[in-house]
């Protein structure tokens, strides 16, 4: 079957159809092409060529009945063309023979949904391989699985495009040089590797939900991309409760996005948010995902975090009783996965549930830890607890330290507002 054989007389806008195919089919086609060609960059370049070909061909011949199959065949042809031209590839003859065999065979979709799902899982696990540093995993996942342009990723993480481009290229070269296998891990290593994949998606969402730097509190495009990646993982691994737990966590947080800043762009604390701005459909989606995770009866850290967030979105979730439950869940999370982030949140929740002195007591060991001397959320939480405890001078010092450590202008402006209110008496 040729790409031309698949064209039909489907009505519609060819340019819009190409854009839709890029959005919906790109990751699956690329995953299959990488397996067939054995080379990330070669597959990406060939796929880009195929989409460029589609713009001309679909204008001329009509939109194909199966756009994904058309793109797969066209991309395979382009891969063969590039291999024939590039004599520097050592096993060029072997790859050409394999691609020719595939091209002479069945329809590209004949392997079935399982083959496509396996290819996409292979792609995700390869991009998130522990041999790559975390920043490279995040960048490569957004570029290869998410389809974001290098410039988009660079803007989201506040680095220039050449720097981000080099980071992505180094990651691809590392995969090739280290002979990182393009496969789904075996049962013995899957739990630890899956945790790494979930971590990458969580980091992408976190940077979108609470940007560490810049003049925006929320980077919507990163939140949406993380949720899309999370949904893909849930579809590919429906029996993994932590995948559903992470999806629930992201959806429940994202549901409050519109209420987190006011009309002037200023930060709005949870207890003061306009609940009419919350996305109820998103909340329902998140609660359903959490229910599905819990039914699998294998608790984990993302499910606990989602349960905490679910309490926040319930009516009365910010009352004292609700905060007591939140503090209890953070205690369970601290036992499962102890970290400064968890302990700071636990102390904040305890401060609301049992009074600021209890929160300050829990923060004490963290404030004494040398490794946390520049951890901004610790000092922001400390300042707020000191203010509520009536320790004005100490609170002023803590606010000043938190402000000095703030990289995000929206967050910094809110801390400065609270400091001004405190110094004004």
Termini Cα gap: 78 Å
Q: Which blocks of ≥5 consecutive residues have pLDDT under 50?
A: 1-7, 106-111
Strand segment count:
2
**What does the largest sheet look like?**
2 strands, antiparallel
The H-and-E topology, N to C, reads as EHHEHHHHHHHHHHHHHHHHH
Residue share in β-strands: under 5%
Overall outline: elongated
Our count of helices gives 19
Arithmetic mean of pLDDT: 87
What percent of the residues sit in helical stretches (DSSP H or I)? 55-70%
Strand arrangement across the biggest beta sheet? 1-2
* Computed Rg: 25 Å
Describe this structure in words.
This protein is mostly helical and 425 residues long. The chain has a domain of 107 residues. It contains 19 helices and 2 strands. It has a two-stranded antiparallel sheet with strand order 1-2. Helix 10 runs antiparallel to helix 11, helix 15 runs parallel beside helix 17 and helix 17 packs antiparallel against helix 18. The longest helix is centred in the first third of the chain and has 24 residues. The protein is elongated, with a radius of gyration of 25 Å. The N and C termini lie far apart (78 Å). 40% of the residues are buried. The N terminus is likely disordered.
